[in-house]
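Team,

Forwarding the record for the chain on the shared tracking sheet. I've put the sequence and predicted structure together so nobody has to dig through attachments.
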Amino acid sequence: MRRVAVLVAAIVLVADLMTKWLLATPPWGQHYQNVGWQLSAAIGLLIPLGMMFYPQMALSGGLLFAGLAGNLLDSVSGGGVNNPLAAHFGGRYAAFNLADVSIVIGIAATSLSIGLIVIRDFEKRFLVGIQTEGE
C-alpha cells in the first residue's frame, strides 16, 4: 500500500505543479506565505510521511504530503501560492489549486480511516469480549 501511496503522491504533486505552471492565476488568486508558514509546512511534511508507514493511513498520508509539498514548493519558488482554478458561488469566487483539493481529500480520508480503526478496535475490545464472557 505504501508504494501506491508514494505513486499517488508523486502523480498529484506533478499534476499540481504543472497546472500552476500552465494555467494563469488571477491577481486575486495568489496567496503570499511568509517564512514562518514555509518553515511550519516543511516540518509538517513529517506527519504525512509518518502516516505512510501504516497501511490504513498510507493513501491519505500520500495525498496530504502531495498537497502540502505542492503548496510549499510553489511558495518557496515564487513567494506565493498560485491558485489557478476558480469557482463561482453566488457572487463570490473561490480560488484553489490541485494541492488544496488533495489536502481536503486527504483530511477526509484520514478522518474515515481513523473512524474505521476506532470502530474495529471497539469491536475487538468490547463486543468480542462480551460474547465470549457470556458463554
